[in-house]
Structures are given as C-alpha cells and as structure tokens.
TrEMBL record:
GO terms for biological process: CAAX-box protein maturation; photosynthetic acclimation. This is CAAX prenyl protease 2/Lysostaphin resistance protein A-like domain-containing protein. The chain crosses the membrane at residues 78-99, 119-141, 162-195. GO terms for cellular component: chloroplast. Residues 1-22 form the signal peptide. GO terms for molecular function: endopeptidase activity. Residues 127-213 form the CAAX prenyl protease 2/Lysostaphin resistance protein A-like domain. Keywords: Membrane, Signal, Transmembrane, Transmembrane helix.
Length: 221
C-alpha cells in the first residue's frame, strides 16, 4: 500500500507534469477541454501504474486464494448495490455534519478547480471527460486497491468487520481531505459490506460509480 501511494503521487505530481513540460505545454495554459483530457490521461496513467505495482508485488503469492479480484455478472450483486444506494442520503448527511465540524481553515482563498471552471463554462466535452475520470476511472482503480487487495489482505489478521472498517479508514485517508473523512469512511464501510456479501468486485465498483455520479451531477447544478 505504501508503494502504491508513493507511485500514485510520483506519477501524478512528477512524471506526467515532466512529460507535459517536455512536450512544450503545461496544464495551466490549456483550454477547458485540454485540462480535462490532461486529467483523464493522468488518472489513467496513475491507475495503470498502481495495477502494475499490485501485479508485481502479488507475483510471489500466485495462485491467489479464490475470490480475489473476482468479477462476475451473475449472482444477486445488483440487489446489494441497490441496498447500498439506499444509504446514499446518510452519506450525504454525514458530509454536511463533517463540514460543520471541520470548517475551511483560514488562509488564502483557493481558486476554482478546473472541473468547476468547465461546469461554469458549460463545456460539454470537458464535462464528459471529467465524468469519465470520476464515474469510470476512479471507481475502477480505487476498488481494485481498497476492496480488491487491501480488504482481503486484512482478513488474514483481523475479523471481517474490523477489516472492512480498517480498509474504509484507509480509503478515506487516501483522499487527503479532512472535510470528507466521516462520509468517506461510512461509504467505504458500505462498499466493503457490499463486496463482502457479493464476493464480487464489480458490485463495489458499480456502487462507487453511482455515488461519484451522484456527487458529480450535484456539482453541475
């Protein structure tokens, strides 16, 4: 996990910007669509690097135990996803509570993000590219790491409920946002529970994607 986090940061903060600079441009000088494409390519690069790290580190443990990284279109996982969606209002409530408990720290005013700029500009192509990042890419990479790898690994050392809670806490902390810790931990527990019930990584990915889509659509209002 430490190696994955370090690789994720190094790729996104150093390698991709260096390659962009070597190609003669920077993210700040791009149009809304250019910044959205830059974010998409960065996210894909970070995700593939993370999968490569997992593939390399798990090599000596193959064959992996049954159920690891399992994708299955069959089964009752859709019902588990629906039940998980019913808890979205509680995640939203925890988000508001967390913001009230951890207000924005005083300091320089933070500029509007490139996503918000594209939404304000109503650039459909840029918003579509950001939607792919948020609704498709992020759920795939994050679920592979936190529910596909970390959660099953923790069950070797602690009971399943504690493993779900620990992986959810790691999932929340990995977002580096104190104002979202409470809802992200709860969301991580829900997705961990869905994964544990269904034994299907596709279920937690779909649930994760639906939540991110809900947040993205709310941001577009």
């Amino acid at each position: 996990m430490i190696l994955w986090i370090a690789t994720f940061w190094f790729v996104g903060s150093w390698i991709v910007p260096f390659l962009a600079h070597a190609a003669g441009f920077s993210k700040e000088t791009l149009t809304h669509r250019g910044q959205a494409l830059y974010s998409l390519l960065t996210d894909i690069t970070e995700g593939l690097a993370g999968i490569a790290i997992l593939h390399q580190c798990l090599g000596r443990f193959r064959p992996l135990p049954p159920g690891w990284f399992e994708f299955n279109l069959k089964g009752r996982w859709i019902l588990d996803v629906v039940l998980g969606c019913l808890l979205f209002p509680l995640v939203n409530l925890l988000s508001h509570i967390n913001i009230s408990l951890v207000p924005m720290s005083p300091g320089p005013v933070v500029g509007v993000s490139s996503v918000e700029q594209s939404i304000v500009a109503r650039d459909p192509v840029a918003m579509a590219l950001y939607a792919v990042v948020v609704i498709v890419c992020a759920p795939i990479w994050e679920e592979i790491v936190f529910r596909g790898f970390l959660l099953p690994s923790l069950t070797r050392y602690m009971p399943l409920p504690l493993s779900i809670l620990a992986s959810a806490a790691a999932f929340a902390l990995a977002h580096f946002n104190a104002q979202r810790v409470m809802p992200l931990i709860f969301l991580g527990v829900v997705m961990g529970g869905v994964f544990a019930r269904s034994r299907n990584l596709l279920a937690s990915m779909v649930l994760h994607s639906l939540w991110n889509g809900f947040v993205f659509l709310d941001l577009m209002k």
